[in-house]
Design a protein that fits this description.
By secondary structure, the chain is of the alpha/beta class. It has 17 helices and nine strands. Helix 2 runs parallel beside helix 15 and helix 6 crosses helix 11.
Length: 372
C-alpha cells in the first residue's frame, strides 16, 4: 500500500471546520502541535507537565519545537502540573513492588536524569498552565468552545477543574491519549518494548487526576486507546522523508528539519533503538482531532479509571457496555473510543505537514512554501 498522495488529501483538509484547542502534555511531539494548525485550527495555549519526562525536560522539548517552527509568538507556552495529585516517587515504586514493575517509569525511573536546564528555556511565567487553560475556556465558551487535549497525565486539567468546575461543560470536549484495554496478553508474552507499548503510563502516573477529568461533565470525550499503538514508523516512511528532502545529509544539516532528524535518527529503522521507533501516539490523536474525517470506526463505552491503590489495575481504564455499566457506587463517563482511522491518509498528512514551512505562521496565519 502506498501512502496517500498530497492531492488526494486536499479534500480532507478543506472539509475540516476551524476549532480552538488547548494542549497539555508531558513531552510534546512536533506533529501534535503542527497538525491542528495545518488543519486551520488555532492552538490557544500549550502547557507542559511532569510525567513521562521531568518538568524541565517536558518544557525543554516544547521550547525546542516552538523554536524550530518559530511559533513562540502565537502559541503561548505555560508550565503545567509539577507533580501528580496524590502519587509520589515512593508510592509509585511501592505499588510496583506489590503488583509488578513497569518497563517505562517516566520521570519516576530511579535512573532518570534531566536533559535540559531551566536556564536555557523560556516560557510564559505569568500564569500557571491550569489558569491559562481556564482563561482560554472562559474566553471562548459562548462563541467558539475550546477542545482540551490531554496527551500526558491529566493533572493539569484536574487542577483546572478543581478551581473552575464549569470547565468541562464550558469546553467543546476532551481528547486524551491513553486508555488502552485488553492488553494483558500482550503484556505477558511480549518483549520489553511490547510490554511498554501496551502499558498506560499516562493514566498510571496519576490515576486520581485521570478519574476526575474523565468523569467531569464534558459534552464529548474521545479516547485514542489501542488505535494509537498501530501507527508506527517504518523504513518505507523514512525513505520517503529522506527522498523528499534530498537525502539524509540535507535533513541533518538543515535546522528546520531538526524534529524530522530526531524521528529518523540513524535513518535506518532496524538500527534505531526502541525509544526511536515508538508508535505515533500523540500524533494519531492530534490528527483525528484536527481532521475527524480520518476516523473510520468507533465504539461507545462507559469508562472509569481504577483508583484503588491495592489493585493490580490501579490507573487502568475500565470499560463497560453502557447498558451494563455500574449504576451506583462508581462514577463513570460516556466516551467514544476510536478503533480505526485511515492509516494511509495519516501518513500522507505527516509527510505533507513536515514539508511545509511554518516559520512565518504567526505572521501570515498559515504555511508558506518550503524552499530546500
Amino acid at each position: 500500500m502506498k501512502f496517500q498522495s498530497l492531492l488526494s488529501i486536499a479534500a480532507v483538509l478543506a472539509s475540516a471546520s476551524a476549532k480552538k484547542i488547548f494542549i497539555d502534555n508531558d513531552g510534546l511531539a512536533p506533529l501534535q502541535l503542527l497538525f491542528p494548525i495545518a488543519a486551520g485550527h488555532e492552538v490557544l495555549g500549550l502547557s507542559t507537565s511532569f510525567g513521562s519526562a521531568s518538568l524541565v525536560d517536558g518544557a525543554g522539548q516544547a521550547y525546542d519545537i516552538l523554536n524550530t517552527y518559530n511559533l513562540s509568538s502565537c502559541v503561548p507556552h505555560y508550565i503545567g502540573a509539577q507533580q501528580p495529585l496524590l502519587r509520589t516517587y515512593e508510592t509509585f515504586h511501592a505499588w510496583e513492588d506489590l503488583f509488578g514493575a513497569l518497563v517505562w517509569q517516566g520521570a519516576y525511573d530511579p535512573h532518570y536524569k534531566d536533559s535540559y536546564s531551566w536556564e536555557n528555556i523560556t516560557y510564559n511565567d505569568t500564569l500557571a498552565g491550569a489558569i491559562a487553560l481556564i482563561d482560554a475556556v472562559k474566553s471562548n465558551k459562548d462563541t467558539d468552545p475550546v477542545i482540551v487535549y490531554a496527551a500526558g497525565m491529566m493533572t493539569t486539567v484536574a487542577q483546572a477543574l478543581s478551581i473552575y468546575p464549569d470547565l468541562a461543560k464550558d469546553a467543546q470536549g476532551l481528547y486524551i491519549m491513553g486508555g488502552y484495554f485488553d492488553n494483558q496478553y500482550a503484556q505477558t508474552i511480549g518483549d520489553s518494548i511490547t510490554i511498554d507499548i501496551n502499558t498506560d503510563i499516562n493514566l498510571i502516573q496519576d490515576p486520581e487526576a485521570a478519574q476526575i477529568v474523565l468523569t467531569a461533565d464534558w459534552d464529548e470525550i474521545v479516547i485514542g486507546g489501542n488505535v494509537t499503538n498501530y501507527l508506527v514508523p517504518s523504513q518505507k516512511l523514512y525513505d520517503i522523508l529522506e527522498e523528499k528532502a534530498g537525502g539524509l545529509d540535507v535533513i541533518r544539516s538543515n535546522p528546520y528539519f531538526a524534529q524530522v532528524s530526531k524521528l529518523l535518527a540513524t535513518g535506518n529503522y532496524s538500527q534505531n533503538n526502541d525509544q526511536e521507533t515508538l508508535p505515533f501516539w500523540d500524533e494519531v490523536v492530534s490528527a483525528y482531532m484536527s481532521w475527524p474525517e480520518l476516523i473510520l470506526e468507533t465504539t461507545n463505552a462507559s469508562v472509569a479509571v481504577d483508583t484503588s491503590f491495592y489493585s493490580p489495575f490501579y490507573g487502568s481504564l475500565r470499560m463497560w457496555n453502557p447498558e451494563w455499566a455500574p449504576k451506583s457506587g462508581y462514577k463513570i463517563a460516556n466516551a467514544t473510543i476510536i478503533d480505526k482511522i485511515d492509516d494511509e491518509k495519516f501518513y500522507g498528512l505527516l509527510i505533507d505537514t513536515f514539508f511545509k514551512n511554518w516559520t512565518q505562521y504567526c505572521e501570515v496565519d498559515g504555511a508558506v512554501p518550503l524552499i530546500l
